[in-house]
Amino acid sequence: MHGCLQKVVTLLYTSTEPEEGSYQLGWTVGDMNIEDLDEDVVRRLKEQAAAAGLSVQRYLRNELTRIASRRSPAEFTQGREPMSRAEFLAIRQRLRST
């Protein structure tokens, strides 16, 4: 399992084409390979999977699904202007006064 885990993490995702000219997510199989994982990372993932009572594959699928469901820091800040020092101080003052 160790060598297999180090070389391949398989994810299931889906796609179907219900009508001509349209595309919709559905059910097809896809693979993702993660190579050269550090031994300590592999060991830790096995420990976490065991603690959760899951196989390593199921644990990784759950974790990757959870990660993918969240917006990344880049997506979260995309299109936003940085907060000015004055705005920061005003918010900090308001929070401290409550």
How would the blueprint of this fold be written?
Blueprint: H1 2-7, H2 39-51, H3 56-69, H4 73-77, H5 85-97
Helix pairs in contact: 2-3
What's the gist of this structure?
This protein has 98 residues and is mainly α.
Walkthrough of the structure:
The structure is a single chain. It is built from five helices and no strands. The chain is mostly helical. The chain has one domain. Helix 2 (39-51) packs across helix 3. The termini are far apart.
Roughly how many Å apart are the termini? 54 Å
Order of helices and strands: HHHHH
Low-confidence stretches: 1-28
Average pLDDT figure = 75
Shape estimate = elongated
Number of domains: 1
Helix fraction, binned, reads 40-55%
Strand content: under 5%
Task: Write down the Rg.
Answer: 21 Å
> What's the total helix number?
5
How many beta-strand segments? 0
Largest sheet: none
Q: Helix/strand-derived class?
A: mainly alpha
Task: Note the main attributes of this structure.
single chain, 98 residues, mainly alpha, 5 helices, elongated
